[in-house]
Design a protein that fits this description.
This protein has one domain: Cathepsin D, subunit A, domain 1. 3% of the residues lie in helices and 50% in strands. The longest helix is centred in the last third of the chain and has 4 residues. A hairpin with a 2-residue loop joins strand 9 and strand 10. It contains one helix and twelve strands; from the N terminus they run βββββββββββαβ. The chain is globular. The protein is mostly beta strands. InterPro entries: Asp_endopeptidase, Peptidase_aspartic_dom_sf. Keywords: Hydrolase, Protease. GO terms for molecular function: peptidase activity.
C-alpha cells in the first residue's frame, strides 16, 4: 500500500468532463463500480453512435441544475446492495480527487434517498487510492469547473 493516497470514507470529487465541479461521494471499496445519481436521462444518437444526456438536481451538486451529455461506453447489469439487478448505462470520464486526475467508468443510477449522490467503487480506486474508514473529507472541496462545450439540442428532452 506504500505510495497510495489515503482517502476518507467520504470525499468531494470532481467530474470535469461532465461539467461537475464538486459532488459528495461515498468511497466504497465493497462496490465494484462507481455510480452517479441522475434525476433523468435520455438516449440519442450522434454521428451514428449512442449517447446519453442527463440532469442532476441542484441540491446534490451545489444549487444549480446540471445537464450534460456523454457517449455511452457500455451497458451492463449491476446488482445493488439490496440484491436488485438493473441494466445501467456506463460512461468513461475523468475523475479529479486528491490532486489526481484519472479516467474512470461510472454508471448512471437513481440514488434518491441515498446520502451521497455518488458512489466511488474499487475499480476507480485501484492502484492509486486506499481508504481510512475512520476519516472523511481529507482532500477538501474542488473549485468549480467550466462545463464542457457541447450542444444539448440533439436528443434533448422537452422541459
Amino acid at each position: 500500500m506504500a505510495g497510495r493516497i489515503v482517502l476518507g470514507w467520504r470525499e468531494w470529487v470532481a467530474l470535469p468532463g461532465l461539467g461537475i465541479g464538486a459532488v459528495r461521494a461515498k468511497i466504497d471499496s465493497g462496490a465494484r463500480s462507481s455510480a452517479l445519481h441522475v434525476d433523468a436521462h435520455w438516449r440519442f444518437s450522434e454521428g451514428g453512435a449512442p449517447w446519453v444526456g442527463f440532469r442532476l438536481s441542484p441540491d446534490l451538486v451545489g444549487g444549480e441544475v446540471i445537464e450534460s451529455v456523454a457517449p455511452i461506453h457500455d451497458e451492463r447489469n449491476v446488482t445493488d446492495s439490496g440484491g436488485r439487478r438493473t441494466r445501467r448505462v456506463f460512461l468513461r470520464t475523468p475523475l479529479c480527487l486528491a490532486g489526481i486526475e484519472r479516467e474512470i467508468e461510472i454508471n448512471l443510477s437513481d440514488r434518491r434517498g441515498m446520502r451521497f449522490p455518488m458512489l466511488l467503487g474499487r475499480t476507480a480506486m485501484a492502484r492509486v487510492f486506499t481508504v481510512d474508514p475512520a476519516r472523511s473529507f481529507l482532500h477538501g472541496r474542488h473549485a468549480p469547473v467550466v462545463p464542457p462545450t457541447f450542444s444539448l439540442t440533439p436528443g434533448r428532452p422537452p422541459q
